[in-house]
Amino acid sequence: MKLPSNIEVRGAKVNNLKNVDIDIPLHKFVVISGRSGSGKSSLAMGVLYAEGMRRYVSSLSTYTRRRLAQAKKTNVSSIKNIPSAIALKQRPSIPDVRSTVGTMTETLNLLRLIFSRIGSPVCPNGHRMEPTIDIARAMDLPNDGVSHMGEITCPTCHVAFNAYSAEDFAFNSYGACPTCNGSGTTKKLDIEKLISNPKLTIREGAVESWKVPGRNFMPYVVEQAGINIDTPYEKLSDKDKEFILNGQEQKYEINIPTKSGKVFHMDNAIYENAKDAIIRTFESTDNPKTLQRLEKFYSTSTCSTCHGSRFNPELFTQVLVDKNIAEVSDMELAQLLIFIKKIKQWLPKDVFTLGNRLLNEFKELITPLIDLGLDYLTLSRPGSSLSTGELQRIQLSRTLRTETTGVLYVLDEPSIGLHPSNVDGLIKIIRGLVRQGNSVVVVDHDTSIISSADYIVEIGPESGTEGGEIVAQGTLPETIENKNSLIRPFLNGTAQIVQRPIWEDNKILYDMGSIDISISNYHNIKHVSAGFPVNKFTVISGFSGAGKSTLLFDALMPALQNNTPNFVTKFNPGKIKNAFAISAAPIGKNIRSTVATYTTILDDLRDIFSSLAESKRNKLTKKSFSYNLQDGACPTCNGTGEVNLDIQFLPDMKEICPACHGDRYNKDVLKIKWQGYSIADILKLNIEDSQKIFSERPKTLRILRILEDIGLGYLTLGESTMALSGGESQRLRLSKFINKTQKNSVFIFDEPTIGLHPLDVQILIKVIQKLIMQGATVIAIEHDLDMIRNADFIIDMGPGGGTRGGEILAEGTVDDIISNSHSVTGKWIKKSMK
Asked: Do residues 96 and 383 touch, judged by C-beta distance below 8 A?
């Protein structure tokens, strides 16, 4: 019997896919390309992965299925020959504050086991014991009243004691530092930040902490306590200052004047000093915005007890060779491989077999991470400090170490965060997966990845309702010959890459001044000084871990926001007054956030519909035209447009609401028409088409034209912002700044080309040029060579990641970078221009 050679998809209608029929080669490296919103991820994730995963889970027992996240049946006529699937998603979840590389990769779990089984403990009397099989065996004894798990005896002084177990080495459990509880940092209320400006009086707002919710009446309380609130804070007596900062809680009778001239009387106003106002608010709230606001009153420092390691220092007596668990956790992965060899040489003979097995497993966990270019990471590195690309590669490493065969790997934008030098390594890994007998489908726009594929599928021709079709498919030579291919000009070198005027004269580069900053001794940066030309476009390039994010987001951005870190040794913002970080993170928290709500277009629609005569006759107000309020929401789905069905052991199903058919509103609201449309009908229109009906609404029409100009004309007004790609989210955020003067403003981006087709990158470049023409300064971390070639000024960092990074290798114009022999990025730019 001949084995199947293709996954046969027939009648795919997921999202905007238009009844797609396609054969995807099995046991090959396949790339799916297309513009943002064209339907690439719908085919890759919504069809191939979803159905591959669903069928695999369906083969398991009912008991097991109920404990797994299950996908619903895919909207296709049929799929044949689909293997079990594993997905690498574009946006890995951001780890919490307690996550580290060690916990995320599970390497720390094994390291804890290694320390407890083959580590060298110290008895209570200070005698060092070498590892033995008896110590390892004691850790596995039952704690049954006869045996004592972990109890060992010192051969020198014969004292019996409990050695440290694997659980004792967990900083999220028993092994946590008693001072910081395993976080590695401590927070301290910064007294200087409680008083915003000592020259101000209390009435004028000198006490910043009394501006938090519920404390605005505190100046009247201290006035009643006998303190002059019209005297500048710096001129108050030490006794009065002490009362403001540390005064005891007391009740006072006060009168609070209001803007209307009336007086509000309080019989038992409780005094809360400037410190307690922050501490108690911090303890009592879980509102993210309030917590973020309170953070500015605290200074965070490395824990003085564990020195940032998170571990209880008592654990440091137990070592491997001569290193404790904190020292091993601080080693870079490349150093760990060398240290593993050293441990094997150090182990006594009677535990060598056990130790060798544990260490080989440890090596198997580390090796895929190194192969993916993450050799500079340490196990102690906080997960929250990792870039999207680093998080993705950690995800990928988990799947690589299993060495499975016959699996479908679906990778969504695996090139995110990768320097061109690292992309070659990624391609080798993908090829390795195929050689093992797997099938790999990659959604990506990187031309070097597309050029390396066995088969290319292009979705398009445009985005949204204008996409969802197969426009080209075949091998690389077939794609280059296909005139319908959108990626073709970028593969054969005929595309016009530079889309904006570039200043290449260094005198003109700094004609508007510069933003200057210097950093010393932070992360892997020993000393770096950088100058960003004002009213120009600057790109920071370099390997992952080279120090780009440290320079931009740990140093420059806080300094621009008047919160200069102590490791910044020099800072001159020039005339810059405003700083905006344009994130690619999803906008909103749930499906209730739409393009219309984010852009305020829905507010205008509610004004329009509530002012209609028919609305007034039916007593429908502005509230009635919000699907987020009970007055207007469909009572069945509460304004979400869909309902969840719990069908026990089968996966939960999300279905279009049977009452409103996805329109979100109740039937009374849907009866009201404007220009022949209900409010739900208008939300179904895309940005381009909706401009016709808003021709007499200049404010909304201006917003719609801006959205179309920045390449989002295909989005519908009711489209969920949570479903937008990273590039779409960034451009939507930018829409609020377009066509307004941005003089003395700086916009900072972190890899703005994430998820963008080269044609969409060109649109983004034009948007950046608009900002610059409005007077803005634009700075971006970027790996995309097309974007880098459009920069006025480039700062290339490296030469590697981690301890091998933290330097500026080259800076200047594109020509300067290309001609600089130290710049790795320059070599790749030169290669891309051939």
From this structure: yes
> What are 665's strand-pairing partners?
633
**Beta carbons of 719 and 709 less than 8 angstroms apart:** no
Strands (E), 282-393: 298-302
Write phi, then psi, for 702 (nearest 5 degrees).
Answer: -65, -40
Q: Which residues contact 785 (CB under 8 A, 6 or more apart)?
A: 420, 828, 829, 832
Specify which residues 746 forms β-bridges with: 579, 777
Distance CA 635, CA 623 (A): 15
Taking alpha carbons only, the member of 609, 636, 639, 615 closest to residue 627 is: 639
- Is the pTM above the cut of 0.70? yes
Instruction: Decide the pairing of beta strands 793-798 and 807-812.
Output: antiparallel
- Token pair of 351, please? 């535990």
Average pLDDT of the chain is 87
What's the CA gap between 222 and 198, in Å, rounded? 17
List b or e across 262-286, with b for residues whose CB sees 16 or more CB atoms inside 10 angstroms.
eeeebeebebbbbbbbbbebbeeee
Q: Is 106 left (phi over 0), alpha (psi -120 to 50) or beta?
A: left
Rounded Cα distance, 755 and 652, in Å: 29
Q: Which amino acid is at 733?
A: R
449 burial (CB, 10 Å; 0-12 / 13-18 / 19+) is: buried
> Tokens 């995110």 belong to which residue?
416
Average pLDDT estimate for 778-805: 91
Structure-token pair, residue 142? 């039952």
CA distance 542 to 530: 15
E strand or H helix at 275: helix 274-284
Query: What kind and span of H or E run contains 515?
Result: strand 514-522
Among the listed ranges 145-159, 344-358, 359-373, which one has the minimum average pLDDT value?
A: 145-159
d(CA 421, CA 413): 16
Determine how many CB atoms are found less than 10 A away from the CB of residue 187. Answer: 14
Residue 289's Cβ-count burial label (10 Å; 0-12, 13-18, 19+) is exposed
pLDDT tier at 655 (50, 70, 90 boundaries)? confident
Residues 6+ apart with CB under 8 A from 364: 401
String of DSSP letters for 691-739:
TTTTTT-HHHHHHHHHHHHTT-TTSBTT-BGGGS-HHHHHHHHHTTTTT
CB 186 within 8 A of CB 303: yes
Using CB atoms within 10 A of its CB, is residue 507 exposed (0-12), middle (13-18) or buried (19+)? exposed
Count the Cβ atoms, other than its own, within 10 Å of residue 302. 13
Angle at CA 319, nearest 5°, toward 316 and 323?
Answer: 85
First to last CA, the chain: 48
The DSSP output letter for 319 is B
User: 326 in helix, strand or coil?
Assistant: helix
- What is the enclosing helix (H) or strand (E) of 268? strand 263-270
- How many of the other CB atoms lie within 10 Å of CB of 542? 30
**How many residues in the chain?**
834
Whole-number Å distance between alpha carbons of 208 and 652 = 49
Range list of H helices, 611-661: 613-617
In tens, the pLDDT along 213-236 reads: 778 888 888 888 888 988 999 899
Q: How far is CA 521 from CA 559, 714, 822, in A?
A: 16, 47, 23
Helices 238-246, 274-284: inter-axial angle, 10-degree rounding? 10
CA dist., res. 536 & res. 793, Å (int) = 8
Omega into 573 within 30° of 0, i.e. cis? no
For residues 82 and 146, which has the higher predicted lDDT (pLDDT)?
Answer: 82
User: Going edge to edge, which strands form the sheet with 514-522?
Assistant: 525-533, 514-522, 568-572
Burial class of residue 646 (count of CB atoms within 10 Å of its CB; 0-12, 13-18, 19+): exposed
730 vs 745: CA distance, rounded Å: 17
Which residue from 214, 348, 182 is spatially nearest to 280, judged by alpha carbons? 214
Tokens for 663?
């329109």
